[in-house]
Specification:
Elements: H1 3-30, H2 35-56, H3 68-88, H4 92-116, H5 121-142, H6 148-151, H7 153-171, H8 177-197
InterPro entries: Gly_transporter (IPR005115)
Subcellular location: Cell membrane
Transmembrane segments: 6-28, 35-56, 68-85, 154-171, 177-195
Length: 212
């Protein structure tokens, strides 16, 4: 395994860890749940997008079940939340930042894998976006909450940007660690700006959220 592959693997595992923390925190904050529930929700959030991607690419069994490190990292992240839930609940902003890291990394790795499997650019962008938002969407559905991808305008949009930049770099034969980091950074920055300034994508005029 070369240096570039090692770096991308580390980034992928970092995204897995970040999403596991986020999913498990969502579990302990929004529902009354035991350790199995916390671990399950954390791991689904961390691994769900990648599993959906691999199923759609017919890459079976999914990478998650071929490399034990993904399952181990996801379980470890969720278990940390279960043990230290009371203390971790006080650091919402850092967790959101890590969630943005996971979104960014998975959008890039999802799009690049789709391109490597011969999908077209548009399809690869869609699949990259799905990889980034898939786990969180499953998580929200399981706890009966409107998925973030449908209620937070700058959640899917950053993933689309990151996946789009990845596809563009691959089509121009410029893809590598540097291009992947740039694409992920752009996705991360847009997501963080959305969190910081509470930005949303345009909504239909004359409509109100369910919370109004």
């Amino acid at each position: 395994m070369g240096p570039e592959q090692i770096l991308l693997l580390l980034l992928d595992l970092l995204g897995t860890f970040a999403f596991a923390l986020n999913g498990a925190l969502t579990a302990v904050r929004h529902v009354r749940i035991d350790i199995i529930g916390v671990l399950t929700l954390g791991m689904i959030t961390a691994l769900g997008g990648g599993i959906l991607r691999d199923i759609m690419l017919n890459d079976l069994p999914p990478a998650t079940f071929q490399d034990w490190r993904y399952l181990a990292v996801a379980a470890f992240g969720a278990f940390i939340v279960f043990i230290f839930a009371k203390h971790l609940g006080r650091i919402t902003v850092p967790i959101e930042v890590l969630d943005a890291v996971g979104l960014s990394v998975f959008a890039v790795t999802g799009a690049s894998k789709a391109m490597e499997y011969g999908l077209g650019p548009v399809q690869s962008i869609i699949l990259g976006t799905l990889t980034g938002v898939g786990g969180g969407t499953i998580r929200d559905a399981l706890i009966g909450r409107i998925p973030s991808v449908m209620s937070e305008g700058l959640y899917a949009v950053p993933a689309i940007v990151g996946a789009g930049l990845t596809v563009a770099a691959m089509m121009a034969d410029l893809y590598g660690v540097a291009a992947a980091v740039i694409a992920a950074s752009a996705c991360w920055l847009i997501r963080i700006i959305g969190i910081r300034y509470k930005l949303d994508a345009p909504t239909p005029r004359g409509t109100h959220s369910l919370e109004d």
